[in-house]
Amino acid sequence: MRFPFWVALRFLKATGGTATALRIGRVSAIAYAAVGLAMIVALSGFNGLRNLVLEGYQWTDPDLKIQKPSGRLFPLDSVKLDLLKNLPELRCACPVVELDAVAVKNESFAVVRLVGVSSEFWK
Fold it and tell me: pTM value?
């Protein structure tokens, strides 16, 4: 294993007739280092960005969610909302309707989540 490193070290330190090859080798080493550094910076940034997004939406996500396993809606009478509101541990209980949609402005598209809440939600 020492021989390949010896050849590579001798090649990188060489002068004279191999000057062009030496320059190409140095440029490629710098390019590899730059790409590696850019990947480290980008991946570190995305790692912190995920936590920032999760913290930003945490206040809108309730601690307890009652959902139907399939379909969109279920009758409000099937959920004992009055019993839930009387629980001492619960600050607020209100029905919410969520729907994914596509918003269009001029020629721009964006996927959005529409949320319908009752007036009790803001209390």
Answer: 0.37
